[in-house]
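Take one record.
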Amino acid sequence: MGNPMDSLSCFELVTLCLKGACSALGVLYGRYNGVVRNICFRVVKDREIADSLTQETFLTAAGKLHQFRAKPGEKSFKKWVWMIALNLSRGYRRRLKKEDEIIKENFEKDDVDISKELGPDKVAEGNEERGILWKAINALPELTRNCFIAYHVLDLSYKEISEAYNLNKNQIAHQLDIGRRILKGKLKGLL
């Protein structure tokens, strides 16, 4: 026999969740994870990242369920969780794009003779920032550092990194995410 909660409305399940019935959240997950995964995939174009964002969406929804303005009917919760997924996916994509731009900008400066355009103070400052960045990158765990440099500095594709380090796409993405988080923490306020 199925779960008796399967027959409950979305409104009733949310009400139960707010009263502490964790199994009601599981039923909501079962109903809406496909919709959420689909929107995440449409934004990030990567199944494994979309799976991760789907989990993050439901964890976020669970933490913010008290903010949900429940109305009788299925569409209000579906729309609410869909918007969480969309915002998390867009945020993920923006964060990656911004981090890639910052990293590439710092490394591409090596190829340009900026001393002609900037004074000695600015050149020294740029060299110091690159030194700080490289020191932080070199302090990353070995596998994370290797994946990070291969992707962000050498512009290798996931496929090329996969062949070099015998990792799958999800493992590479995880290592890159670890590297970005560590660097963000170490470099906060320095660059």
